[in-house]
Specification:
Blueprint: H1 6-17, H2 20-42, H3 47-71, H4 82-119
Helix pairs in contact: 2-4, 3-4
Length: about 120
């Protein structure tokens, strides 16, 4: 295999995750659009909300590692080379960032909805 085919990657992820793949992809796409819309609406990052979302991101990174161990055929004890540990760190980092963005977005839209109800 001399080139990376996206359809092969899709087939591998579909085999590993099953229907959860489509749920995760929908959460990623909808969450990213909601985050960008929130940033355009507020025109700034709210520090307090960002701090709490980063703290929640640590839990999300840990859950991403649990999901990785669940869907793969090997555990953390099987990681031998540097690329294995790099992949584990990458999965944790992506889980951390994804969770932080989603928590920030949900908290932001919830605060907007609450403020809208109080003024009406």
């Amino acid at each position: 295999m001399n080139e990376l085919d996206p359809l092969v990657l899709l087939a591998v992820f579909q085999e590993m995750l099953g229907p959860l793949l489509w749920v995760l992809l929908a959460v990623i796409i909808i969450g990213t659009l909601a985050f960008l819309t929130l940033l355009l609406r507020e025109r700034r990052l709210v520090a307090h909300r960002l701090m709490w979302s980063q703290a929640a991101g640590i839990l999300g990174g840990a859950l991403a590692l649990v999901l990785m161990a669940y869907v793969s055929s090997s555990g953390f004890a099987d990681a031998g080379g540097p690329i294995d540990w790099l992949l584990i760190a990458l999965v944790f980092f992506l889980g951390l960032v994804g969770t932080a963005v989603l928590v920030y977005t949900v908290a932001g839209w919830c605060s907007i909805c609450r403020c809208g109800r109080q003024t009406a």
